[in-house]
Structure formats: structure tokens, C-alpha cells
Design a protein that fits this description.
- With 324 residues, the chain is of the alpha/beta class.
- It has 13 helices and 9 strands.
- A 5-stranded parallel sheet has the order 4-5-8-3-9, sandwiched between helices.
- Helix 10 crosses helix 12.
- The protein is elongated.
- The model is unreliable at 316-324 (pLDDT under 50).
């Protein structure tokens, strides 16, 4: 069911629809045309937000009152003031190398302040968490939760307390089943209901959800259907992996581009790990030299579990690097 604010906005949109050729004062509507119930209309009439524009046998049409129009205008101004520009969101995601179309889609959805939900699915270290952190830093009232550490009661409490415009759910594939019940209501209608000690409280939010997971295979279908865009990040090719290492290490760690390229090449070709492992190579280096890259990578290879290649190249670790 729509909230009272949503009903008022729908009524305002009907009365200001330029496709309606009638004069503005004749653009009336019936309750069901804006998704309201008779009880909703009765309540909003009592509050002076609607007026009856015409009444005949079996037919009643309504309009917003001056009070109702004023409230909608105030809400519109408040929402406009609270908007986060898409460019600010894009700038906050500058550490994310590539995926430009995905970043743009998310940034403009955040700016629009609609309940447009995204699910980011892919292998570790493919920038999912970086995207979430970028949105979190750009949106003042965003709230981030982690599926492995979130209970249904805890999530409900957080939603009631913070009332975020954006909920960021990392590790969404690790949520308990009880958490899905909270998420389903929030994503479908914006409704959050909670019953404790025989007392029930409810809230309607205009919250968009951005989730991240390694795999959606075990997620309920009704949960997945609530995402407007379910994005599956493919594994990096060798060229992409090197580009990401170069961009990320240079921007986030101040690593010289030529060394970042070498780190990306050696980590990928030796099957050491993902971009986080490449970052680890840079952090363990005692000097910004090629010799240090080789020393650290050889140290990692020496003590990697035998027969358990981890990296994108998926080669069996060896005790020596080619040419060393």
C-alpha cells in the first residue's frame, strides 16, 4: 500500500499532467486512479488535504486542497534540497576502475531518490565493496550493513533509527533467512513492520537498496525479483586485471604506474590471488623497485598452499618466478 505522501504526490502528478488537455481546475480524479483506498481518501479528507470536486450517483471525484498542494510543494523542495548530485557519487567511486556504465546507472538512481534497487554479484575483489563504499561516502544518510553480521531485529532497529535514503547490504548472500522478511517489505513497498512484546510499530520509507554478493544461487527468487538491475561481474581477463591493478594501486596507494603494472602481471600469471593480493604485494615492499616486486611475490609463492592456485590465472604456485 502506498504511503500518504506517495498518494499526495500521485494526486499532484495527475493534476499537473500536461498530457491532460482539460483546464487545470478540471483535472479531477477518482480514488483508485492514484492507487489509494477509500479509507486513505477519507483520512486525507479529514486532514484537509483533499476536497471533493464532484459527486454524483456512484461517482466521486477529488482534487488536492490548497493545504495539500502546499504540502506537496514543500516535500518537493525538501527532496530537491536533499538530492545528492550524480557527479558527486561518481567522484566518490573514483577508486573503482572500469564498470563506467554501472557506476553511472547507480549514481543517477541515487540522485533521483527513487526506490530503485541494485544487486552486484561477482567474485571477490571485483570492486563491489568499493562501489558500496563510494555511495556511502557520497550520501550523508546512507546506512551500510553486512549480511554475515545482521539480524532481522538489528536491521529493523537500524531502519527505524536512521531512516536511510540508501541501504547498502554487503555480503548479502550471507544473510539469515529472517532478514529476508525485513528486506522484502522494504524493497516492495517501503514498509517496515516490527512486533515486540505484543506491540507493533510500522514505518514507510523511500529507501533504495544496493546489495553485493559473491553468489545469488541460494537467494529466494522473490528477493531477487525486487532488484531493478541484477549485475553479474565477470572474472577479469589478464588485460583487465592488469589495468585494474594499475589504476587501483596508483590511485589508492600511490604506487608508480610501471610497478603497478608489473605487480598485476606477476600476481595474475602466478595465480597468487585477486586485486587485494596485488595490494598486499605493494604494502609488503620495502622499496619501490622491480627487485622488491619479485622478492615479495617469490615469498608469497614459497609459502602458498601447494596445489591451491587462488588467482585469476589459476596456475599452480611455484617456488621460482620465470626469469628469476
Amino acid at each position: 500500500m502506498p504511503s500518504d505522501l506517495e498518494i499526495l504526490r500521485r494526486a499532484y502528478d495527475r493534476e499537473n499532467d500536461t498530457r491532460d488537455r482539460r483546464p487545470p481546475h478540471l483535472r479531477t480524479w477518482e480514488y483508485y486512479s492514484i492507487g489509494a483506498s477509500r479509507n486513505d481518501i477519507s483520512r486525507l479528507l479529514d486532514e484537509g488535504l483533499f476536497i471533493i470536486a464532484m459527486k454524483a450517483a456512484g461517482l466521486t471525484k477529488y482534487r488536492l486542497s490548497e493545504k495539500g498542494r502546499g504540502l506537496v510543494a514543500a516535500m518537493a523542495m525538501e527532496r530537491e534540497y536533499a538530492k545528492v548530485p550524480a557527479q558527486s557519487v561518481l567522484e566518490a567511486m573514483e577508486l573503482v576502475v572500469g564498470w563506467e556504465d554501472i557506476k553511472q546507472a547507480i549514481a543517477y538512481a541515487v540522485e533521483a531518490r527513487r526506490r530503485t534497487n541494485f544487486l552486484l554479484e561477482g567474485p571477490p575483489a571485483c570492486a563491489k565493496s568499493l562501489i558500496l563504499e563510494g555511495v556511502r561516502s557520497a550520501v550523508p544518510d546512507a546506512y551500510i550493513a553486512f549480511g554475515s553480521r545482521t539480524s532481522a531485529a538489528g536491521l529493523s532497529d537500524a531502519l527505524f533509527e536512521h531512516q536511510p535514503s540508501v541501504l547498502l547490504m554487503d555480503e548479502a548472500d550471507k544473510m539469515d533467512n529472517e532478514v529476508y522478511s525485513v528486506m522484502l517489505g522494504l524493497m516492495e513497498s517501503g514498509e517496515v513492520l516490527e512486533t515486540k512484546s505484543k506491540k507493533t510499530r510500522g514505518l514507510r520509507l523511500e529507501t533504495m537498496v544496493i546489495g553485493a554478493c559473491n553468489s545469488s544461487a541460494k537467494m529466494p527468487r522473490e528477493f531477487l525479483s525486487r532488484f531493478a538491475l541484477h549485475l553479474s561481474f565477470p572474472p577479469y581477463s589478464r588485460e583487465e586485471f592488469i589495468d585494474v591493478c594499475q589504476g587501483f594501486l596508483a590511485r589508492a596507494e600511490g604506487c608508480p604506474p610501471e610497478l603497478a603494472t608489473l605487480i598485476g602481471q606477476t600476481v595474475y600469471d602466478s595465480g597468487l590471488g585477486d586485486v587485494r593480493k596485488a595490494r598486499g604485494v605493494w604494502q609488503l615492499m620495502m622499496a619501490p623497485t622491480e627487485a622488491e616486486v619479485h622478492r615479495v611475490v617469490q615469498l608469497m609463492l614459497k609459502y602458498s598452499p601447494e596445489g591451491n592456485p587462488r588467482g585469476p590465472g589459476k596456475r599452480r604456485p611455484t617456488t621460482r618466478l620465470p626469469g628469476i
